[in-house]
Specification:
By secondary structure, the chain is mostly helical. The protein is about 75% helix and about 5% strand. The protein has a four-stranded antiparallel β-sheet, covered by helices on one side. InterPro entries: DUF349.
């Protein structure tokens, strides 16, 4: 029995070949030929409804690309379906829909690529930030935005994912190294502070005031370079250390003689010369030789009469300021070489970036200390001249630390 799209032969139902396929058996006669053909025609109608429904779903949904695989599977199933009907128009419709979806998907993937490139630029800008808490939250939010952004072309997928992940990981590796380093460094630093307190006690009990003073100056420099520990552990040690050194200085000051005499003009010339030289050193990169010369200049300064003309006050402050710059830069060099053994092999731009990040972190702590000192000065006013003088000295010292670091940051910025 013949059918427009098939036939019955030897009690078997055949579908005529289409789109390069040969005729194939799709079933057999169960009751009679007419009802059997009608059954397979009905199966074809069901397939037409599936195709129609899929087309409607595609039109009605925003995320059209999500239907692509369903469409491909349906088209493949039509090629093997056991039904009687004209399959070629259905397959052609699905192929047109596939082309439509691929165009939409390509547009979306191009948009996704631009979005992800922009997210990578955001990640790059913050990867060396040392505001660990704020930047960690920034990267958490950025990763959520990345995940919510759809896929890109396969040819770009691996490269863009790797670039983004490496950039984000760069920050989190820096953070991990920082906190691991802090923990290890703090353990060693506390031992140094404890040893310096012991030396301060010994110096305090030393009979010769000058020797005690020299030891005091030495251990105060060592304290400054000893590194950071948690405030709750450092503060009790600092309270005792500073109290002992203040007493040592007071005793030494009382025993000072008039000291070497020098013509005021000659003294001013010497003060100006030493200040100009230390200022020159402050503008140069730190080195072993430079630090040696700076120490020699300081030694010459200490040999000058303690009382200087009033007009030398600003110059004396300049000398202190630029001396601090020289030794702060030396401390920064020590810090970066301690954290990065291969620091000297890095490109100059990366070296500057590392120094800037570390210095900003140190500056942030100094600014916090300055704010605390300013609050203390306001909140703990007492009717005591000594207390007032002590607070002013404290504020001046901390402010100078802040000014020194800001000065070095400007030097780095103009490299």
């Amino acid at each position: 029995m013949e059918h427009p799209y098939g036939y019955i032969k030897n009690n078997k139902v055949y579908l005529k070949g289409f789109l390069g396929q040969e005729d194939r058996i799709i079933g057999e006669v169960k009751e009679d030929e007419a009802s059997t053909l009608k059954y397979f025609e009905g199966r074809f109608e069901q397939l037409k409804e599936k195709v129609s429904k899929l087309k409607n779903d595609i039109q009605e949904n925003q995320n059209k690309g999500s239907f692509l695989m369903k469409l491909i599977h349906l088209r493949e199933s039509l090629m093997q379906a056991d039904a009687l009907g004209d399959f070629e128009p259905l397959i052609s419709e699905l192929s047109e829909q596939e082309k439509y979806l691929n165009e939409i998907i390509q547009v979306n993937r191009n948009k996704n690529l631009e979005v992800k490139k922009a997210l990578i630029l955001e990640a790059e800008e913050k990867k060396d930030d040392t505001d660990w808490k704020e930047t960690t939250e920034f990267y958490k939010e950025l990763k959520l935005r990345w995940i919510k952004t759809g896929p890109v072309d396969k040819e770009n997928q691996e490269e863009i994912e790797t670039t983004f992940n490496d950039t984000v990981q760069h920050f989190f590796e820096n953070r991990r190294h920082f906190f691991e380093g802090l923990a290890l460094q703090a353990e060693e630093n506390i031992k140094v502070y404890e040893a310096l307190v012991v030396q301060a006690r010994e110096a305090h009990d030393f009979p010769d005031a000058k020797t005690a003073f020299d030891i005091s100056k030495k251990i105060q420099r060592q304290w400054k370079e000893a590194g950071k520990v948690p405030a709750e552990k450092r503060q009790p040690l600092w309270d005792e250390f500073s109290r002992l050194n203040n007493r040592i200085f007071s005793r030494y000051k009382r025993t000072l003689q008039t000291g070497p005499q020098m013509n005021p003009r000659e003294l001013m010339r010497k003060v100006e010369t030493l200040t100009e030289e230390i200022k020159g050193l402050a503008g140069k990169p730190s080195s072993y030789e430079l630090i040696g010369r700076a120490k020699a200049i300081q030694e010459e300064w200490r040999k000058l009469p303690p009382r200087k003309p009033r007009e030398a006050n600003l110059i004396v402050r300049s000398f202190q300021f630029f001396s601090d710059i020289v030794f702060e830069k030396a401390f920064l060099e020590k810090l970066v070489h301690g954290k990065y053994p291969d620091f000297d092999e890095k490109p100059e731009a990366e070296q500057t970036q590392i120094k800037t990040a570390l210095l900003k972190d140190l500056l942030h702590r100094d600014q916090t200390e300055l704010e605390a000192a300013q609050n203390n000065a306001e909140n703990f006013r007492v009717q005591s001249a000594d207390f007032d003088i002590m607070m002013k000295k404290k504020l001046f010292a901390v402010k100078r630390k802040v000014d020194v670091k800001n000065y070095i940051l400007k030097q780095l910025a103009y490299k």
